[in-house]
Write a structure and sequence with these properties.
Layout lengths: L1 E5 L3 H12 L4 E4 L8 H5 L10 E5 L5 H4 L11 E6 L7 H6 L4 E4 L8 H11 L3 H9 L7 H18 L3 H19 L4 H17 L1
Parallel strand pairs: 1-4, 1-5, 2-3, 3-4
Helix pairs in contact: 5-6, 5-7, 6-9, 7-8, 8-9
Length: about 200
């Protein structure tokens, strides 16, 4: 059995891995493999078992080794290759497509994503309005994930214009992140407090 699991939902992918390989399996880092290592992995046996259960992580990042994968689709072992993403234009992908199962595990898209970014934008000029808009989303969103999206937007702002204002925002976000990890305060309270302060942080 040879399968490739790809996508950003690692939790679902790992649950399927355990279902297929069991709780005890070998883990091999694909990025460090040499092409000469592949025969012993895909064809070789051990002293204890004729069939091995193996998880190989990020093999596609290792182009010389990944290009040899079509030679091992008939492996007698149970092998799953876990990838974040695959280059569907590569010769190796085209050669294995249809011969082995390639299963995607993707995170569901957040229908509120655009509104999350809008809240951050609103907070730059009107923190109270941003908090009011957020109140309608709190029951649907996770505060830690929401905060992560705010951080990603602030990083994009800094990448676009590496100014003093953008640096101040990132420093403040770092403080909030530390508070979330080191205190028992309600995460939503910390997020709302940041949104209320954002305008004054930007304008000094």
């Amino acid at each position: 059995m040879l399968k490739i699991f790809t996508g950003d939902d690692r939790i679902r992918a790992k649950a399927e891995i355990v279902k297929l390989l069991g709780p005890d399996y070998e883990v091999i880092e694909g990025a460090t493999l040499e092409p000469s290592d592949l025969p012993s992995i895909f064809k070789g046996n051990t002293l204890f078992a004729s069939t091995r259960n193996i998880l190989i992580r990020d093999l596609s990042e290792n182009k010389p080794a990944f290009e040899k994968l079509p030679d091992y689709t008939d492996t007698p072992h149970n092998i799953i290759i876990l990838e974040l993403k695959l280059d569907k234009r590569s010769a190796a992908y085209k050669a294995i497509k249809g011969k082995i199962e390639i299963k995607e595990f993707t995170m569901p898209k957040n229908p509120n994503l655009r509104l999350v970014f809008d809240i951050y934008k609103i907070a730059k000029t009107n923190g109270e309005k941003a908090v009011q808009t957020l109140s309608g989303l709190k029951s649907e969103e996770d505060p830690i994930m929401f905060f992560g999206l705010i951080v990603s937007q602030a990083i994009k702002d800094y990448q676009a214009h590496q100014g003093i204002k953008e640096k101040r925002v990132l420093k403040e976000l770092a403080k909030v992140d530390l508070q979330m990890k080191s205190t028992q305060l309600d995460p939503w309270l910390l997020v709302e407090s940041f949104l209320l302060r954002l305008n004054s942080i930007i304008n000094g």
